[in-house]
Fold each of these.
Amino acid sequence: MNVPATLTLRSAPVGPVQLALFAAASGDHNPLHLDPEVARKAGFERPVVHGMLTMALAGRLLRMLPRPIYDRAFANAPRKPRAP
């Protein structure tokens, strides 16, 4: 089986509307994610994308792997959260 050397996630840039929709869905209304002025004062050029939104986009990238590679890569992943 040929394993791709790279994968490219094709996604539009995350903009204010997507950030606001994600904030509403997640309940995370931290102004660092929504207010450009707050983000600038914190040292960022623009609002910071929510971590879980970033992970959702990364999850889409992983699902682009050919199925046998995906299955093998996650064969030993825990199926249930483990207690600390």
Amino acid sequence: MKPTQFLRHLAVTIGLAIVAPTIMQARPDPAPRNTAAPDAPRRFEAEYPVPYAPMSVEEIKAVLDRVLTYLDSCTPARLVDRETGEEIL
């Protein structure tokens, strides 16, 4: 190894040794705790961090309505005659 390469590797190693601890200390905010069932503590609460808060009833209904609307538009129900293959109105 050439002396210039050695010095370059040494400089990078020292730089990483100085910068790495400060990067490791910069942690994101902790995720919200999952407290979906206040009447049954610890039963439904996650023992690990979750990156989202529990959804409300209105949010769940909005998602389900959006899925139902999409399915109705993509797969409309229709009655087809088995023998002729024509749609029955």
Amino acid sequence: MANHKSAKKRAKQSETRRQRNAVVKTKMKNAIKSLTESSVETVGAAMTNVQSVIAKSAKKGVIHKKTAARKTSRLAKMMNRMSA
């Protein structure tokens, strides 16, 4: 455990951020899961929602910008294969 006042504060901040990031990551994973389980007719609307969730995760710094781009690209590729 931290001994200095500043170290205690940093530990507290880190824990708060960890919990907040976990919530955002879980939302992102659930959105992706719902997209992969959605029917061919509803794929367009679901894809828009998932792209938004992934972009917000990147904007908040939970995932890297290029990781978000890679996830979006792979999902789009998968949806195109599914609908074709």
